[in-house]
Every structure is written in C-alpha cells, then in structure tokens.
Amino acid sequence: MLFPGVQEQLDIIERNTVEILSNKEELEKKLTYSVQSGKPLKIKFGADPSRPDLHLGHSVVLRKLREFQDLGHEAILIIGDFTAMIGDPSGKSKTRPQLSAEEARENGLSYFEQAAKILDAEKTIICYNSDWLGKMSFADVIKLSSHYTVARMLERDDFERRYRGQEPISVHEFLYPLAQGMDSVHLKNDVELGGTDQKFNLLVGRDLQREYGIAPQVCITMPILAGTDGKEKMSKSLGNAICFNDTPADMYGKVLSIPDTLIKDYFRFLVIEKQMPYILGNINPSPTAGTHVEITTTVMHTSLEDLIKNSPRETKRALAKGIVAEYHSPGDAEEAELQFDQLFIHKKAPDHIELFEFDDQSMPIIDLLMTLGAATSKSEARRMIQQKSVLVDERKIEEITECIELSIEPKIIKAGKRRFFKVATRKSF
Fold first, then answer.
1. How remote is the C-alpha of 80 from its chain's centroid?
2. Do residues 206 and 219 lie in contact, with contact meaning Cβ atoms separated by under 8 Å?
C-alpha cells in the first residue's frame, strides 16, 4: 500500500496534539517502517460506555483517529464494556460507581453508530474488551498484577491526591489501568490515542506490551474539551455535554450557550476545514461563501481571531450551525437557527411540535414528563418543576403533585428552555 511521506504524515498527526510519548522520533520510526513495508500501523482508541451517548469531547480523539485512517492506517475502536464495569478512576476524587455487565453492554450498543459520524465505518475495526478480559482467570489477573507495583500506581496524580488526603482507594481501581493495558497487549497495536487525563493509562499499556515481549506503543494525548460551562471537562454527568445524538435544536442551543472564551477552541477542535467556507459564509457573506475554496489552518485561525474579536455573537451562531450541519445536515442547521430565533428572540413556540395522544383524561405532571421523555426519572421531573422550568400553555407548574387535565384540544408542554410537546386525549370515532 502507498502512504503519504513520513514528514507529511507527521505534520498531520502532530496538529492539535498535546504529547507524543515516549517521543516523536519513535513515532517517526514506526511511520518509516510502515511506508517502507507497505503495512499500515494499528491505531487504537478505547471508550468506556459509562453513559449511552458520545459527546463532542470524544470527537477530539475520534478526529485524530480519522486522520490516521485517511493516511491509510488501521483504526481500532475499543468499546470498553469490561473496563466500564471497573470504572475508570482517572481524574476522580472518589471511587467511581461500577456498571453491571448488562448496563455496560447496553450503553455500548450505539457507540459505533455514533462514532461512524466521524470515522470511516467500513474501515474501522470495532472490538469489545470483554471478549478477552472476560476470559482471564484469577491466576491470569495475579500474573498481570505482578508486572506493576503499588508505588508505581501511586505515582498517578489522582491516586496520590486521594492517598495524601486519606480518601479511600479501592484495590479494583488499581486494576483499571492494567485491564486497559491488556487491551494493548491483546491487540499488539502500534499507537494508542487518548485525552490528557488518560496519559497514565496509556503509558501502562506501553509498559505491559514491553513486559509481554511486544514492541511498545506510541502514546498520543489530545486536549480535554471544556463543556458548555467553560470550566469543567465535558461530561454528561456534569450536565455540560453536547452529545452526538442531541436534536439539531438542542445542539444548536447548547453551542450558543458556551462562553465566548471557548469559541476559538471549539473551532480548532470541532470544525473540519471543509466546513469553513460554509461557516465563514454564515458570518460574513463573501465571494467565497458556499464555494469549495481551500482554506489553510493558518488562514482559518487568522480569520477567526478577527471574527471572534469583532463579531463574537455572529461567530458563535455560525459555529453552532457548522456543528449541527456536520452531525445532522445543513438543512437541519438552518431549521435549528430558525427555531432558536423564534423561541428566544421572538418568544414564540415552534411551528412544528410533536403531538402525543393519551387515553387518560388527566395525568400527574411527573408521570406526564416521564412519559414524554422530558425527564428520565421522577427525581429529575421534580427538580424541573422546583426550578420552575415546566410550563403548560405558558403557565408555570408550581406543585409536583399537580394533575394535568387533558382534552381533545392539545395543550403545549414546555420542559426546560428548548423542549416542547403537544398533549391531548385520543380522538374517538
């Protein structure tokens, strides 16, 4: 197979990365061997399905994996259904809740479908690490544990902080990086990708490969994307995530909610260059808008500096449309913008709201919110009501025990800032 030149590949791979470990020269040697032998490198990225949705924070590493694919290398996506049952302690100040095997497998089912919005699905190898970790005996685990010391584990920042702060560290948490490292041993991959918070885990994989007589992987770390709050790492559990499967309207609104300080980073890590003519055209229509003009990274960032400084609001709106267009379609992006303006500028409900019909004449508001999918639990429904974010025909619901009277004439339920539903009793003929 013919590959681009080594330097050309390095220029692409190094873009937006934080570290290449142990060093760039080691990666260069692997690329040189690949070019000379015509054999693609095996590039691995793993994601634990602790939640059922991928979010834009995951996309930063997935894009780098796609770049390797475009350079002709083999992309391996690991669904960590087994490691999710342990719970990754990375960056945690306390023991992370564990998932059952059923929860982990269920959450992982849609990961590949979501990741395929970025990756070339036909050229991606997908694996579940329970296929090999689940077959290890207790003797195998003891042998694996013998390759790492407690002192080495306590070099990890989050473990060290918890140890010094007398916070509990469960023994099973020490097994997490070893289990993730066994993925690299099993797959014999050449490169592993991850966020900067995964540095320790990636290096353990490198060490274990060496211990098992396998050429050690090169580890490449990518930046951590801040969530919509502009402070914490993007995470669904923190409520600051923009998910691949968000509706166009929700995705658009969430991007607009980010602080201006994040605009540049979101462009840098979330927008591919082929989208720039579309996005720039939405900010300031010009002769290049809507055409397939090549825009280099340098020109793109120079343009963005001026745009963010002079028109932060319009730049953010264009960014939101660009992200929605990529994960949905340009038509969805246009519609999402229209809906947002109608809701928040013109203060009107959307023109098209899904109608839900029921046989019941009345329903408790909490049950209604859960049935509509506006809340995933009764506690979430109660919280929404207490925060006064639930309206029925523009009337705020004050009591969590209230029952909503239904009739043939639809009522409009607003849940949160952007979710609307029509509810009515089913017509009888």
1. 15
2. yes
167 burial type by CB count under 10 A (0-12 exposed, 13-18 middle, 19+ buried): middle
How many CB atoms sit inside 10 A of residue 231's CB?
10
pTM strictly above 0.85: no
Buried b (16+ CB within 10 A) or exposed e, 194-213: bbebbbbbbbbbbbbbeeee
- Domain hosting 411: range is 355-425
pLDDT in tens, 341-395: 887 776 676 767 888 999 888 899 999 999 998 888 888 899 889 988 898 887 8
Strand order of the β-sheet with 355-358 is: 355-358, 419-425, 411-415, 390-392, 395-396
| Among candidate residues 145, 249, 263, the one with its CA nearest the CA of residue 204 | 145
**Strand arrangement of the beta sheet that strand 218-222 belongs to:** 19-21, 218-222, 191-195, 42-47, 74-79, 124-128
Whether residues 275 and 186 share a domain: the answer is no
The two tokens of residue 354 are 């899904």
Nearest to 82 by CA among 118, 59, 108, 116: 108
Our count of domains for the chain comes to: 3
